[in-house]
Amino acid sequence: MTKTTAGVNHGRRPVLVGVDGSVSAQAALAWAAAEASYRRCPLRIVHTFTWPMIGDPFGLNLAEPMNDGLRTAAGWILGEAENQARHAAPDIKVTAALFAAGAVPTLLSQAQDADLVVVGSRGIGGFRGLLVGSVSSTVAAHAPCPVVVVHPHRDGTAFPASPTGRIVVGVDGSDVSAAAIRFAFQEAARRRVGVTAVHAAMPTRQHPSLRVPADIVEQVERQLFAEAMDSKRILVSGIDVKTKLVHSHPVQALLDEADGAELLVVGSHGRGGFTGMLLGSVSQAVLHHAPCPVAVVHRTKAKKPSPARPRMLQIAAPGHFADLKELS
Fold this sequence. Notes:
Pfam families: Usp. Helix content is 33%, strand content 23%. The chain is an alpha/beta fold.
């Protein structure tokens, strides 16, 4: 059972957001509530806590007497987040769920039924100076749907609900880049803002006897960029689209455009990514350093039967701890 606000968003997959009471999570909650309003879909808020462990001669056991205060604090965090979401987006359905489990497995399990996952760049307990925490980076790498990582402003405030910039997307001609372009156009259509597509042409190292003239390399890069964008033009009727081919490192090119952007969209991998790596070097770098929210989009895959979900404990609703429901 979860606590729900009224709304007419039935039948749509939700935007999922994780909260933990940190400033970064508050920014993620505000962004997620606005996104759910744009999509006219439900918003699902989750908060997790783990039981304290104490040592004994036989191993680790749960410290039962210590749990009441922990559950109360966790319920308060979730209740505050739900109230903020209801105030920010009164027209959407909001559900809030509390889990006695780890943050990463909970978010990944809940993401199986979500259209989008939104997380803060780092939460409570993150190492000082670490720009993106382990939870946000792991969820971005493993989630079955796009993930948006939200950095709070330097003054600690969330990004505004009303669009203030363009959608920036990295383009390199790969399959995952095509998925990122599609996502960027969809977001731009919802917000009624423009799209800036960026392609970085980096010089390749070659043996002197095999060196390709610079003008030929330029033509190839422009053709690659044009083909990647032309295949998506059908989706962008009425949207202002700007294309930029720059000669610099992809990370620097994207970060330059991200200043003042509404959202930066990247594929999880680009051309030449190592097989088996869940996040490429470019997506990892912009995830850490971009001054705006970053969406990480994975290659679209054929749907497979959902794996068994990890077992976890869900609290019925904030303030109601009489019953614990075990999920399987």
